[in-house]
## 1
Amino acid sequence: MINLLPLLFVLVSSPVPLSCFEQQPEFTDFEVTSQGVIYRNAYHGAPLSEPKMVADLSASGWLFSTQHRVVGSYLPQTALVGQQRFEQLLLLAFHPGLQSEQLVVVRVFPQQSESWQFDQLLPHLDDAVMAAGDTVVAALWQQQQQAAGWWRPIPGKATQLPTLYAGILYLPVAQVVDGDCPLYPLDVSVHIIHMHSGHTVSPPETVQLSEPGPLQWQLKVEGDYLGLWLQHKDDNWLLQPQLLQILPDCLQCSSVIEHSSWPKMLPVAHFWLEEGAY
């Protein structure tokens, strides 16, 4: 008979991601269990008659935070079709064996009929892989677009869920030396990550927090460009003087967003004048 007590002790004593930091509740169409099973409970806010399982990541053995974020995006190309829209779930998990947190990204497509399994997610592309030749990286780009998602280790404790701007994830990570909740003042590194492959877009930026409290993001005009600011209490840091956006041409492709090209207003509906209808 297998003794499950050591495993249960590890799981119970393992720190759940985000448990040390104040979080605002986010309501989505999905539910994530601590074992990493993901259910869709609604579609655009309209409840389903019964939950539908879209992914089962329990084979990882990781402990997942039930808090998650959902963003909408599209892939420039896949194996079977052209541009394809999907929902992307941003998750945080704890690896009991390595005693480290993981960033996990799962794609959910509108016509998806089968639930994803953990082995259908790919490890993120690290700096060494991205330094390979263009042919290798181009092949990896095709592979990444056909996967269910990706995961990458986090060097510390995530203080909140990633924020997405122009295809790039910004993940604040506390630099801690043990498994306990960190003490303040606290050094936080903001990791800048490609949303489709998990590779690092640019080096992390580090700020110091004097006390607990949520971090806020804000876009401001900086000359001809958009700047990305991080705010905490009375402190403000300019993280990106020139906000970047990813491009579909290749994994390394990105460009600076000019202020004049940023959409300030988007059309949401057209109402036509009708006469004699009643």
Note: The CA atoms of residues 166 and 245 lie 5 Å apart.
## 2
Amino acid sequence: MPQRQKTNEILSPELVKILKIFGLISIGLVLLLSFFNTKRANNSGEDLTFRMTSSSRLYFLNVKAIKYDRESRSDAGMILFRHSSRAAEENEPTLNLVLILNNPKDEAYLYLEPVRLDWPLEIRATLGENQQEFLLENGNNMELLSYVRKLEPWIAKDANFEIKTDSTWISIWAEPKEKEALKTTLEDYFRLINERE
């Protein structure tokens, strides 16, 4: 009998109560933190950089797409969206920011579309005393997105943009409506890929 009492003393009623309290608190914390975990681990090996969800695509198509001119490319299964407030000069060189939906892959891309210009493109951004030049090559989706990310801070601050054609610099995206079209396209794109909400 005394031997049995010694083994029972290890799990005394007080120790059992403490274990229950800490166990319940641990489970409660795990459950509470799981509600605030918006970033999920990607164990699939897929690149989700351009992935759009069904809800973000539906929101864009039903609410935002009205501001865009739409071009369907059935050969590639893609739909191209150009903001309706972009530059509409027929003879002037410019650069369009095109939002592309690839529905079969559930992906969205951005493309810098030269109009009456050829690659590579030289762009100069000026904001007050600050000036920076960008050399853009025609590339894949990742490279084009990285170009847009470099230009984005300048676009957000309403910088003046010029593009080199032959040996002269001409102004692009100069009108307030063009600047707003760029900002709206960027905002809609990053919302589509759930990067910014």
Note: Helices lie at 2-10, 13-35, 54-64, 141-156, 176-192.
## 3
Amino acid sequence: MKRLAKESLVANLAIKAASVIFLAFVSISAVMADDIHINAAPGQVYNLPASLNDTHIIITGSGSSGAPFIVAGAGGKTTLRGNSSIIVTGDFITIRNVSFVNNQINYRDYEALIQIGTKKNSANNNTISNCDFQYTGTFPDMDVKSQFYWIEFFGKTNLVDKCTFEGKQNRLPVIHVNSKGWTGDNNTISNCIFKNVKSRKGEALEAIRIGFGNSRSNCKIINNNFFNYFGDAETISCKSNGVIVSGNTFTDCRSGVSLRLGDSCQIINNKFTNTVWPVRISGTGHVISNNVFDSPASSITFMKGGNGCSYKAVDNITVNDNVFVGKLDLKVLQSSDCDELPKGVLMRNNFLYTNGLYKIAEGDYGSVMHGMSPAFKARTDGVKEFKYSMKNFSPTTDSKIMQKLKTYQNLKINN
């Protein structure tokens, strides 16, 4: 009897051991296959593994202003591939050192590779830092089912800093910043690189889009570099009030900044090199200041506006302390029923550099354009294009402007 009891005990222990091993195997497999849920708390760090495939990381909870919660990539960077994404629903959370490579997610389930906040609940004071996004495959050009953002914001005082974005091909902007109300969301995109994006038939592939109209975002887009970006007729699309675009460089791009559905925006201290449509303007109260325009095609383009059309009338625009290299052409585009020419375009202390340096005559160039007969260009898209060639210049030897040009030319050569 004792022998049988002993054998039974050994058998039971063996069965239990096997069960533990089996359960452990099931548990590990489930963790590998399921989403990763992280509950954030102030001052803590969650270290990601070296790589993840088809994994969604959902971060709830929050850090604090003095002790953010950090989600950190392993070693150099954690690589997320396939149907992978990160969604943040709390505040004071930092995501850093993560690479997204050739991802394809279902937009009905997840709108972005990194989504901060949701349509119902905003998330604030979060940071995305030192992350890379790259795509080398192909997407159907006009397919909306394969669309998704790379980063999307719902919230205030969020930051994207020191990130690189390359090769996006599917529909929707690289970064979309939602904006609601009139108090200002104050999100910032800084020190990032956007590069090597091909044109697509369906467009809708801006590098950065702010809002959808009827809001004041106060978003800041500062010190970013855009290279070989052709995804959309608007590389930066400002559809909100109070946007500041400062210190950026646009090199060999299809377009630069479009002030589309907002007022009181600032485009200051930027450099546009070989960029076909550097600045396009509709709305009122904008300031275009201290930029260098070095484009063979155009300088500043205004939209005709009016009641019943999709563009606001242009008025009360300040254009000051800019340098135009090669030529100064002001263009006006007219679509559908928009028929109101720009007015109140005040140009002061601007310069043209060709074979020498010239100061551009000051005045209300809205009024100047009203009195000119522009060159008309027919376009296949139904938009009417008018070019106003400005010729009222006087020679100057302004030393500050010459130094500014020298600095720009040195940077151009080194880049």
Note: Confidence is low (pLDDT under 50) at residues 1-33.
## 4
Amino acid sequence: MKLKSVLLEILIVLLMAGTFYITAFFEGGLGKSTDFIIGAASGALLGFYFWYWGAKRDLKLKEHPNAEKYIQIWQYLMLFMAISSFAILVLYVKEIISDPKITCVMYLIWMMIVGNYRANIEVNQETISVYFDDEEINKKAKRFLGKIQVFGALITIILVLILPELFNYFSIIIYFISLLALPYFYARKLHKKKFA
């Protein structure tokens, strides 16, 4: 592993550790009504880190022809997420910013970026192939998933910015449900069409 890659990994882990430490132990604790958003954001950051490691592992195991290039893209995406999470959390606990919408928008932007690269950087197709063991269908469904991830995040960002806070959470929940459900139904349609 190259030194640059190792240093990026160390930086990502340090920023994540700082994020979790501040979330758990900053002076006064998590007392404001919006603090659960920050806790959820820290949990999401950890989830994205596992996702990142899974994608890296799959790229290596399946000997993707551009594995090094896409692993580096993943590293930069994860670094962006770690820096953003840490910076926003520090600004939040210092009460420089207090609107949880900023955190929501940041995560949705990250989802848009990942969705744009998804067909190449995420080799693992289990979310779809668990239903349909067909390579052609899986590829089409994964491209469809990437499009939903990008345009769905863009629509959700607009809704988060214009709707009252209560509706923001429903918008985000609907977005994530659509990422799970729509590619499945699309793959099912392709499967019926191909094997009818």
Note: Residues 165-195 form the longest helix (31 residues).
